Amino acid sequence: MSVAFRREGDDEHLEPKFEIPIPPGPNLVTTRGKALIDARVADLAAQVAAAGDEDAARRLQRDLRYWQTRQVTAQVMPGPSGEVVAFGTRVTFRLNGKSRVLAIVGDDEADPARDMIAFSAPLARALMDGAAGEFLPFGDREDAIEVLAVEPIG
Protein backbone atom coordinates (compact mmCIF):
# COMPACT_ATOMS: atom_id res chain seq x y z
CA MET A 1 0.00 0.00 0.00
CA SER A 2 1.27 3.42 -0.91
CA VAL A 3 2.15 5.80 1.91
CA ALA A 4 -0.01 8.44 0.20
CA PHE A 5 -3.16 6.49 1.09
CA ARG A 6 -2.30 5.65 4.69
CA ARG A 7 -3.87 7.68 7.50
CA GLU A 8 -1.79 8.07 10.63
CA GLY A 9 -4.59 9.09 12.99
CA ASP A 10 -8.12 10.42 13.24
CA ASP A 11 -6.93 13.96 14.06
CA GLU A 12 -5.25 14.43 10.67
CA HIS A 13 -8.42 15.57 8.94
CA LEU A 14 -9.28 18.22 11.53
CA GLU A 15 -8.64 21.91 10.93
CA PRO A 16 -5.80 23.30 13.05
CA LYS A 17 -6.84 25.38 16.06
CA PHE A 18 -5.10 28.72 16.20
CA GLU A 19 -4.76 31.05 19.15
CA ILE A 20 -7.31 33.85 19.51
CA PRO A 21 -5.77 36.97 17.93
CA ILE A 22 -4.74 39.73 20.32
CA PRO A 23 -5.86 43.21 19.21
CA PRO A 24 -2.90 45.37 18.16
CA GLY A 25 -1.74 48.25 20.31
CA PRO A 26 -1.85 48.80 24.06
CA ASN A 27 -4.39 46.96 26.21
CA LEU A 28 -6.02 49.98 27.84
CA VAL A 29 -8.84 49.15 30.26
CA THR A 30 -11.21 50.92 32.60
CA THR A 31 -11.50 49.78 36.21
CA ARG A 32 -14.70 47.99 35.19
CA GLY A 33 -12.91 46.40 32.22
CA LYS A 34 -10.13 45.06 34.46
CA ALA A 35 -12.71 43.56 36.82
CA LEU A 36 -14.46 41.90 33.85
CA ILE A 37 -11.17 40.41 32.64
CA ASP A 38 -10.30 39.12 36.13
CA ALA A 39 -13.75 37.54 36.47
CA ARG A 40 -13.45 35.91 33.03
CA VAL A 41 -10.05 34.40 33.92
CA ALA A 42 -11.39 33.02 37.21
CA ASP A 43 -14.48 31.59 35.49
CA LEU A 44 -12.48 29.93 32.70
CA ALA A 45 -9.93 28.50 35.17
CA ALA A 46 -12.81 26.91 37.12
CA GLN A 47 -14.32 25.52 33.91
CA VAL A 48 -10.97 24.03 32.85
CA ALA A 49 -10.60 22.36 36.26
CA ALA A 50 -14.12 20.93 36.02
CA ALA A 51 -13.94 19.90 32.34
CA GLY A 52 -14.69 16.23 31.91
CA ASP A 53 -13.43 15.59 28.42
CA GLU A 54 -10.09 16.48 26.87
CA ASP A 55 -11.52 18.33 23.83
CA ALA A 56 -13.62 20.64 25.98
CA ALA A 57 -10.66 21.32 28.26
CA ARG A 58 -8.47 22.13 25.26
CA ARG A 59 -10.99 24.67 23.93
CA LEU A 60 -11.34 26.25 27.37
CA GLN A 61 -7.56 26.41 27.82
CA ARG A 62 -7.27 28.29 24.53
CA ASP A 63 -9.77 30.89 25.76
CA LEU A 64 -8.02 30.99 29.13
CA ARG A 65 -4.66 31.72 27.49
CA TYR A 66 -6.19 34.66 25.64
CA TRP A 67 -7.78 36.14 28.77
CA GLN A 68 -4.67 35.55 30.90
CA THR A 69 -2.64 37.44 28.30
CA ARG A 70 -5.17 40.28 28.37
CA GLN A 71 -5.07 40.24 32.19
CA VAL A 72 -1.27 40.49 32.32
CA THR A 73 -1.06 43.24 29.69
CA ALA A 74 -3.99 45.32 30.99
CA GLN A 75 -3.18 48.96 31.68
CA VAL A 76 -5.84 50.46 33.94
CA MET A 77 -6.24 54.05 32.81
CA PRO A 78 -6.75 56.86 35.32
CA GLY A 79 -10.20 58.44 35.39
CA PRO A 80 -10.55 61.28 32.88
CA SER A 81 -11.49 64.82 33.88
CA GLY A 82 -14.54 64.82 31.63
CA GLU A 83 -13.63 68.17 30.08
CA VAL A 84 -12.73 66.59 26.74
CA VAL A 85 -13.50 63.27 25.08
CA ALA A 86 -10.95 60.71 26.26
CA PHE A 87 -10.63 57.05 27.17
CA GLY A 88 -13.16 56.35 29.91
CA THR A 89 -15.65 59.07 29.02
CA ARG A 90 -19.25 59.00 27.92
CA VAL A 91 -19.87 61.43 25.09
CA THR A 92 -23.15 62.77 23.75
CA PHE A 93 -22.83 63.94 20.15
CA ARG A 94 -24.78 64.59 16.97
CA LEU A 95 -23.78 62.84 13.76
CA ASN A 96 -25.84 63.07 10.56
CA GLY A 97 -28.62 64.84 12.45
CA LYS A 98 -28.99 62.06 15.03
CA SER A 99 -27.95 62.36 18.68
CA ARG A 100 -26.09 59.43 20.22
CA VAL A 101 -24.39 58.62 23.50
CA LEU A 102 -21.30 56.37 23.51
CA ALA A 103 -18.80 55.30 26.15
CA ILE A 104 -15.18 54.95 25.04
CA VAL A 105 -13.60 51.86 26.60
CA GLY A 106 -10.98 49.14 25.98
CA ASP A 107 -11.10 46.56 23.19
CA ASP A 108 -12.35 43.69 25.37
CA GLU A 109 -14.94 45.81 27.16
CA ALA A 110 -16.42 47.23 23.95
CA ASP A 111 -20.01 46.28 23.25
CA PRO A 112 -21.57 48.41 20.50
CA ALA A 113 -25.04 47.03 21.26
CA ARG A 114 -24.69 48.59 24.74
CA ASP A 115 -23.25 51.85 23.32
CA MET A 116 -19.68 51.06 24.38
CA ILE A 117 -17.03 51.35 21.66
CA ALA A 118 -13.32 50.61 21.70
CA PHE A 119 -10.92 53.53 21.85
CA SER A 120 -9.38 52.16 18.66
CA ALA A 121 -12.63 52.42 16.65
CA PRO A 122 -12.63 55.09 13.91
CA LEU A 123 -15.54 56.98 15.50
CA ALA A 124 -13.82 57.00 18.92
CA ARG A 125 -10.60 58.27 17.35
CA ALA A 126 -12.55 61.05 15.62
CA LEU A 127 -14.17 62.08 18.91
CA MET A 128 -10.94 62.11 20.96
CA ASP A 129 -9.98 65.45 22.50
CA GLY A 130 -13.26 67.08 21.44
CA ALA A 131 -15.02 69.33 23.96
CA ALA A 132 -18.71 70.18 24.35
CA GLY A 133 -19.74 72.66 21.66
CA GLU A 134 -17.00 71.65 19.21
CA PHE A 135 -17.48 70.40 15.68
CA LEU A 136 -15.16 67.59 14.60
CA PRO A 137 -14.23 66.11 11.22
CA PHE A 138 -15.35 62.60 10.33
CA GLY A 139 -15.31 60.89 6.98
CA ASP A 140 -15.16 63.51 4.27
CA ARG A 141 -16.83 66.32 6.25
CA GLU A 142 -15.00 68.88 8.39
CA ASP A 143 -17.97 69.51 10.73
CA ALA A 144 -19.61 66.06 10.71
CA ILE A 145 -19.74 65.58 14.50
CA GLU A 146 -21.05 68.05 17.06
CA VAL A 147 -19.97 67.20 20.62
CA LEU A 148 -22.87 67.98 22.93
CA ALA A 149 -21.61 66.74 26.32
CA VAL A 150 -18.74 64.81 27.89
CA GLU A 151 -18.65 63.09 31.27
CA PRO A 152 -16.45 60.47 32.95
CA ILE A 153 -17.87 56.95 33.05
CA GLY A 154 -19.10 56.41 36.59
TrEMBL record:
Claim: Protein biosynthesis is one of the keywords in the record: yes
Top-level taxon in the UniProt lineage: Bacteria
Gene3D superfamilies found in the cross-reference section: Transcription elongation factor, GreA/GreB, C-terminal domain
InterPro entries from the UniProt entry: GreA/GreB_C_sf, Tscrpt_elong_fac_GreA/B_C
Keywords assigned by UniProt, alphabetized: Elongation factor, Protein biosynthesis
Every Transcription elongation factor GreA/GreB C-terminal domain range: 83-134
Coiled coil feature spans: none
Molecular function GO labels: translation elongation factor activity
Protein name: GreA/GreB family elongation factor
Native organism: Novosphingobium album
Source species taxonomy: Bacteria, Pseudomonadati, Pseudomonadota, Alphaproteobacteria, Sphingomonadales
